[in-house]
Specification:
Elements: H1 15-25, H2 39-58, H3 60-64, H4 73-81
Length: 91
Amino acid sequence: MCKIPQANFETVGNARRMALALYKLADEPNLPLRIPFGSDAHFLISNQAKKTIQDTDKYEEVSRSTDREDVDGKAWVRDVLLGSGNFKTAE
């Protein structure tokens, strides 16, 4: 865990610019559930997402080992999850 020095810590954000960004996004029809605002948020969330993907890949075998024996997990994902139309891709 890294620590940010507390002395003279200045934020990178600007409230006026964030309000303008929100205004620009107001008419977007397909916004994601969350949007990171600011370079700091983008950095932190991107790094956490990469770590999550690495961990998921590392423990894929363990994850798949919990499927029922009579189910092909990859086929189920393809047929059920992708078949629902709610997901664009899966490997």
